[in-house]
From TrEMBL:
Function: Catalyzes the phosphorylation of the position 2 hydroxy group of 4-diphosphocytidyl-2C-methyl-D-erythritol.
Encoding gene per record: ispE
Annotated ranges, domain GHMP kinase N-terminal: 63-137
Entry superkingdom: Bacteria
First-tier enzyme category under EC: transferase
Lineage: Bacteria, Pseudomonadati, Bacteroidota, Sphingobacteriia, Sphingobacteriales
GO molecular-function term, one example from the UniProt record: ATP binding
Enzyme Commission number, as recorded: 2.7.1.148
Coiled coil start-end: none
Protein's name in the database: 4-diphosphocytidyl-2-C-methyl-D-erythritol kinase
Residues at the active site: 8, 132
Keyword Thylakoid: no
Similarity-based family: Belongs to the GHMP kinase family. IspE subfamily.
SUPFAM superfamilies per record: GHMP Kinase, C-terminal domain, Ribosomal protein S5 domain 2-like
Length: 266
């Protein structure tokens, strides 16, 4: 069985407080985008994981799909499987690619082996693999809070717009990015600000990771500025970086960004 895990972008991200479990409370909007990996599972005589496409750092046994298999196997009878992941979503990009693979793996296993898991069951499993993993179970635009694993659905349709996603040759680790932020309570909730017209977003909606990440990686700041110069209505780094997206009401000319970065129209 095959499935196509998609990436997300964060529109706004406020890190509001440090938690006693070492994590942070935040508020953000997750929006699914059309940039996908391919994930295939077939029954095999032993558990195997292979990948193609972008190189995935870390050991095979630490891949979130493999971790997902072991997690599900604790509670369900599963045969050994061969998992193949074609990696296309940039890594260390703030696009949640690894989390998407994990969530889509859980959904695929539920369908393939008729595990009878509800959306709530799958969300519970996904939370154990990563804070933003649960979003990809329902995979619809949401306002997210707490660790990024509590959701309120929102009406947000960016399909009339062009979204340009720029990935520089820099990777930012999520843990490192959280380390650089000073948590601050919000005055106006993103849940309200996101309902404003998109033309207002630039004034009011920010990503708290930008300040420290831009300090260490000026090229990322430069990409955001270039997207605004090209006419973006709203531009921001996604999540903990390093990717930056711009939302346009026209097909922008961003050819110049392709010289040093990967550019996706999503
Ligand atoms: C920053 C965000 C924003 O959407 O996404 P990315 O930029 O990574 O895509 C998420 O909060 C990333 O979630 P996720 O990538 O699932 O994080 P995890 O693997 O659970 O945690 C990685 C590390 O990030 C920190 N962490 C993560 C989530 C959170 N609410 N507070 C934290 O402090 C912790 O130090 C943790 O050890
Ligand atoms: N299936 C996977 N795809 C990508 N990275 C994975 C995967 N499984 C585990 N990882 C680990 O997660 C880290 C990055 O996760 P990812 O979600 O792609 O980053 P980001 O949240 O910044 O988009 C990688 O360094 C890698 O070691």
């Amino acid at each position: 069985m095959i499935t196509f895990p998609n990436a997300k972008i964060n529109i706004g991200l406020n890190v509001t407080e440090r938690r006693s479990d070492g994590y942070h409370n935040l508020e953000t909007v997750f929006y699914p985008i059309d940039l996908k990996d391919a994930l295939e599972v077939v029954v095999s005589d032993e558990l195997r994981f292979t990948s193609s496409g972008l190189e995935i750092p870390g050991r095979e046994e630490d891949n979130l799909c493999v971790k997902g298999y072991h997690m599900l196997k604790q509670d369900h009878h599963l045969p050994p499987v061969h998992i193949h992941l074609h990696k296309n979503i940039p890594i260390g990009a703030g696009l949640g690619g690894g989390s998407a693979d994990a969530a889509f793996f859980i959904k695929l296993m539920n369908d393939m082996f008729k595990l009878g898991l509800s959306v709530d069951d799958m969300t519970g499993y996904a939370c154990r693999l990563g804070a933003d993993c649960a979003f990809f179970i329902e995979n619809k635009p949401v306002f997210a809070f707490e660790k990024g694993d509590e959701f309120e659905p929102i009406r947000l349709d960016l399909s009339p717009y062009k979204i340009v996603l720029v990935m520089p040759d820099v990777h930012v680790s999520t843990g490192e990015a959280y380390g650089g932020v000073k948590p601050t309570p919000v005055k106006d909730s993103l849940l309200e600000l996101i309902a404003d017209p998109i033309t207002e977003w630039r004034k009011n909606i920010k990503n708290d990771f930008e300040q420290s990440v831009f300090k260490n990686h000026v090229e990322i700041r430069g990409i955001k500025a270039a997207l605004y110069a090209a006419g973006a209505i709203y531009a921001s780094m996604s999540g903990s970086g390093a990717s930056v997206f711009g939302i346009f009401d026209h097909e922008p000319d961003v050819k110049f960004l392709e010289e040093e970065n990967e550019v996706f129209f999503v």
